[in-house]
C-alpha cells in the first residue's frame, strides 16, 4: 500500500508527426517496466508509474520509438515519426541458422524488407523481388499464365545437368514450398550470394540461398485486410496478317488459299482482359509471453488464353510461447494451401498465329471446323474449349521448435518440420474433336488420364548457440546437426474409348482400348517411388573485436545417399572477414560525413546435389521379351552403369566488397566483385562396352567459371515532413566461361551443340558450348545479305559468299551471344503527405536474341497456306527480303537481333488515411501497373519472353508463344 501511494499517474496523447492524427495502440511503459498500457482511439494514454521511474518509452510498429525523460509534470504529449533507414536503425539479416545485425555481416548478402517488394499480381511471390537484388535474375516467359513459375538464377549459370535454382529456406527450414507463401505474409527476404554465407548449407548452396522470413505475432493486437483486383491486357504482342492482307499477299502469290471467312484467330483464342482478384486477412496479438500471427488468403485468376485459370486457398498460423521463467521458447507454424488449376496450352497462341485467317472456326453445320492445313493442322479454339488439362494441388508446411535457454548466453534448439506437396493431374480429350470425327476413328477416340504425384520432405535439426563477450572481444559459436529424408511417389493411368465423354477422367475402367488384345498393355499404367537422405554436421564461429574487426568461419560436413559408395561425404569450409574502417578514430576525425565504411572478403566451398536419385547405382530395367513355351516374358537387365565415385558438383567462391553509408544515412550502398568456379560438373559421358554394360555413364567431369560486379545504391534525395523522395539502384555484370568438358578419365570432347530448333525443316542446333567460350554462344552460318532472288547469302569457311543452301555445317561460326552482360534497375519512391508513388525501371543489356518467330513465320517464303507476321510484307523489315524457298529453314545470324531492353516495369500510387474511429485505424487505397512500356529494338514482341537463364539463353527453341501483358491492379488495405 505504501508503494502504491508513491506511484503517480502520467497521462497525455501520442500523435503522428506528419499529419497530427492520433495514433491508436501505441505501447507505453516506464523504464522499470512496472506497467504497460496502450493509447486509445483518441491517441490518449494514462499510466501509473513508481516515483523512482526516470522515463517513459513509446513504441509503435512502423514508427521510430521514443524515450521521454520524466519531469515534475504529469502530462506528456508527444509525436512519433515514421520509421526510415536512419543510421541507427538495426537491420536484422538472416545468415542461415541465425541472424546478425547488418553491421556484423562479413559476406555478400542482400536484405530486402517486405515493405520494399513490388506490387504485383503473380503466381509466385518472388516475382515481387524482380530487379531488386543485383545478380539475381528472375524471368517468366508466360507471366500472364496464372499457373506459370519463374526461372530464377543467381550469378550466372552454374551447371550442365544439375539444378540451376537457389535453395529456399522458409522460416529457417530448408526446402519449403516457394509457392505456398502469400506475399503479404513476408517480413523480409535475404539472398545469400557469397560462398561464405551459403556454404553453411553445403551440397545445396552452389546456386545461392534465398531465406524468406514470414511475419510473426507481437503483443500488439492488430487486424489487417488487403484485397485487390487485377486486369491483364495484351501488349507488345506479335501481329500476323489480317484476312485482307493474307489474300493480297499470300493468296495472290499462290502461297495460300481463300476459304471465304475472315477470322482473327489470335483474338478468338484470347481472353483479355484477364481478371484476377485476391483477398488476405491477417490477425496478430497476444502478450509478451505468448503471441500469434494468423493469415488466410483466397485468389482467383484467369489467364489471357481461353483455358488457363487458378483458384487457391491458403492459410498460415504462427504461435510463439515463452515460459514465465524464460527457460523454454516454443514455436509452431502451419501453412496449408489448396490449388485448383486449369492449365494453359502454351502452343495455342502460336497455332493461332499460323492459321489461314480465311478459314472459318465453324463449318456449315455449326460444328468446329476440321483444319488440316498450315503448321499444326488443328483448330485452336476447339482445343481450348474442349480439351481439358487440370490439376488439384495440396501443400502443407509444418514446423515446430523448442528452444531451451540454458544460460543467458547459451541455448539449444530442436526443430522438426515436414514439407509435403501432392498433385493430381487430370487430362481429357473428347470423342467429338473434329480431328477424330473426320478421320473416322473407331479406336482411340476419347482419351483420359490421371496422375498422382507426391513429394514429401521430413527434417530434424538440432542447433546450439553460445555467446561470449570478453571486454571488446565478442564471440558467437553455432553448432548443429541436420537430417533430411526426401520421398517421391507417382502413379499414372490412362485409357481410351469411353462410352460417354461426360465421364471425363472419373471412370477410367469404363474405357475399352486397354482391355483387349490390341490394347496398350503395360503403357496403360505406371508407378514409381524413389527417395534420398541428407545428413550434415555443421559449425560456425563469429568473432569481432570492438565492432571493428569481424571474422566468420564455418564448416559443414555433409553426406547424401545420392552420391557414390566412395564419395558419400564431403566438407564445405568457408571464411569471411570485414574491417569497419569507419569505427577507427583516425577515420572518424577526418571523414565525419562517412558514417559507415566496411571492407569485406569471403571464400567458401559449396556444392550442388540437385540431380536424380540412384544415378550412382547399377539399375535394372526392361530389356525386351523372351519367348518360352509359346509365351513372351519380360526380360530385365542392367540399364545404367554403376559409378561409386559419383559426387556433388563443387563451387569455389570468392567475393570482395564494400558497404558504405554517408551523410547521416542519406546515401548508402554496397559494391561486390565475385568469382565462382564450378568444378566436377555432372553429365553423361561415353564409355567403352565392355567392360561397361551401357555406352554412357553419369559422372563428374568439366568446369566453368563466372565472375562479375554487383552494385546496390540507396539514397534519400529529399526528406522533409511533407515530402520524401528515395531512389534505389541495382546493377550487375556477369561474365561466363566454360573451361573444360574432360578430365584424365573421361573425354567429353571440346564442345557440345545445343539449342536445337524444331521442324518444319531441319534447322539443327544454333548454339554451341565450347571450351574457352561463354555459355550462350550462337554458332550458325554468318549471313552476307540477300540476293536478287530473295535467297539468303552466307559466308563459307574460306570467306566466299554463296546461297545458304550451298553451305554446310563446316561453314558455321560464332556469331553472337545470348547471355546478357548487364542487368540494372532503378526504383523511385515519393511520398507527399498521405500520398505515395513508386516508379520502377528495369533493363537487361548487351546480348542477342534469335528471333524464332521471324525465322518460322516472318518471311514471305514461310510454309504455304500458313499465316505469317506482318513483317514478312513490310518493306522496312529485312525479313521481307527473304522470298526464296531455297533457303527457308536455314538458320543464320540474319535472325539475330539486339535483345537489350528497358522497361517502365512497375508504377504504383497509393493514398493512406488514418482514421479516428473506434474500429478502424487506417485505410489505404492503391493502384499499380506492371510492364507499362518496353524500349527495345527487338522486333519479335517482348524480349523478356525469351529466356536468358539456363544453358541456352537468348533463344526460344519451342514454337510455343504466350503473349506479354500490361497488368493493372486496384487495391484496398485496411488496418483495424
UniProtKB/TrEMBL annotation:
Family matches, as InterPro entries: Beta-barrel_TonB, Beta-barrel_TonB_sf, CarboxyPept-like_regulatory, Plug_dom, Plug_dom_sf, TonB-dep_OMP_SusC/RagA, TonB-dep_OMP_SusC/RagA_CS, TonB-dep_rcpt-like
SUPFAM superfamilies: Carboxypeptidase regulatory domain-like (SSF49464), Porins (SSF56935)
Membrane-related topology note: Multi-pass membrane protein
Localization: Cell outer membrane
Domain TonB-dependent receptor plug: start-end pairs: 102-209
The entry's keywords: Cell outer membrane, Membrane, TonB box, Transmembrane, Transmembrane beta strand, Transport
Residue intervals of the TonB-dependent receptor-like beta-barrel domain: 345-932
Entries under NCBIfam families matching the protein: OMP_RagA_SusC, SusC_RagA_signa
Family recorded in the similarity comment: Belongs to the TonB-dependent receptor family.
Protein name: SusC/RagA family TonB-linked outer membrane protein
